[in-house]
Design brief:
This protein has helices spanning about 5-10, 10-35, 40-55, 55-105, 110-120, 120-140, 150-165, 170-190, 215-230, 230-235, 235-260, 265-300, 305-325, 330-360, 370-380, 380-385, 390-395, 435-445, 485-490, 540-555, and strands spanning about 200-205, 205-210, 405-415, 460-465, 475-480, 500-505, 515-525. The protein has a five-stranded mixed beta barrel. Strands 1-2 form a two-stranded antiparallel sheet. By secondary structure, it is α+β, with helices and mostly antiparallel strands. Helix 4 packs antiparallel against helix 6 (about 120-140), helix 6 (about 120-140) runs parallel beside helix 11 (about 235-260) and helix 8 (about 170-190) runs antiparallel to helix 9 (about 215-230).
Amino acid sequence: MSLLEKVMFHPVRSVSYGYHKMIETMSERGNAFLLSLIPTTQLKTILVVFLVSFVDMRMLRFILPVMVLYAALFVMVVSTLQMLQLHEDLGNFRIWSQVMKIIKDDLNTQLAEAKFCWKNLYPYLRFFAAMAAAVTALHYTAASMVLNSEITALAALMTAITFISLSERHQRLAWLSMTLHLVMAGLHLFPTLRPATAASLQLAPGLFLDFSLLAILQLATLGCYATMAAQERWRGTYKVLIPHLASVVWFQMAMLFAGDASTGGVLRAVGTFFGTVFALPIIGGFLLLFPALALGRHLYQAGFLLQAVVTVALLALPFGLAFLRSRHASLTRLVSSYQVVVLALGLLSLLPAVHITYLTAPPPTDAAALPWQQYYNVCHRPALDAATQAQVQHGCQLLEGATVQWQGTVADQTLACVYGRPIGDCNAELMDEVGFSRCKTAHAVMTSRCTLRAWNRYQFHIVVHMPTGYLNVSPAEVYLSADNQFQAFGLNLRVGDRLEFRGQLSAGLGTARPQLTLTGLQCLSCHQEIAPILEVTQRDVVNELVSSAGALFKLYSPRRCLRYDGEPAPPAVDT
């Protein structure tokens, strides 16, 4: 089962596993990571030079408290995670000590637990030192640089985690202490609640000592602390009291920052914390999926995706058949028959492929053909972003006339035409329904009985989108100029057709839309199959010019479009 499936179908277990894994990782590598934050001698030298050169005392007094505050909060979080890991290790230690006590009756398990707690007080000491640094730095930090809502939510979350995890089971004193702190926090957050003075003691004339409810609560809290510490001959100081003080410190931090926090900010922070836990694996899955989709899009644009899928399917077929034979012995004869059929079909499929390859074998590829990606980097968008258009045009004019062979997707095409012959009558038997309707409409509105349609020579303007990168959603454009030899393509191409074209760079070099004069064109993926034109030779161009000259001579000959007694002239006979 993949990570995404585990998170989707077992969210509670996934969060629990991630929680314990994070605690274990931070406990094992937390010290090494904190030590790695200490700069070396070279970094210290660079820092001193930077401070002397760019930072004045006013800036230093502004930045230094902010750095100390957030660094201290980070140390507190890391130390807390180490405390949680130590508490889990203490539980395992108790289990093993009970097992050892069964073997050896005189084993003092309480003393062993106390020694274990005493030798692992370093995270607690670092935690309290970081707390003192954070409180001190807060007084010198600008209010605009303190994330009160986020720190309040973080401190409240850590309070709940540490109180539930670090407190001993059925520890009534811990619950009593936290209840007293909650009451005192309520009196602090709502100063309008002024309870009456419980007692007053006159120490001297005019000098009174008032015992308020808040003072009584504080004294009761100190009593709880003393009772915790006195457990097991004062071993409760580091077994019970110090772990409990960690949750108390986080609670006091939450109250300290809650005064300047907003309700909306706290809700936003809580949603961010819990949303990150559940949404981060899903976001990570999408981040892994996006490159795969981009790669598939690039392969599709390159015309390679279908070939790759077919190749993988054919390669996987023998393994699939072998797997079926291994799992189902009764299918051995059937699988063997399938193997023979697939082999025969594969051999037969090679015959038309060889025949088509022989008929449409492309001409030898020009070794000096300019790749599209190289042209794009030198004379297109990246070059235009790095230099002026005039500079790019000046440098790319040297490529005029260069032969290229690229692949792209049709985005648009237009045409223009000249020359023709007389219009014939509409014949329903020789025309389809659409053509007959168009012919009748034309006869009804036209003023001339002659047309030059038969001698049209078309020139097509085709706009092709070229790939620019895996994640680029704005493709580059290339402007193709195709003459009459490419009439079949110009009349049948649709937007989205994949083409491989060959031609010479003619104009627009160094601009966002270079122009090509086509000499070859074939479909890679088209809505309608069109016979490829692999190479237009010089002989084809000469034949086209001769045909055009003959069309002009025929157009201006005395036989063109003559009418007698108002009757239309008969269709001219092509020569």
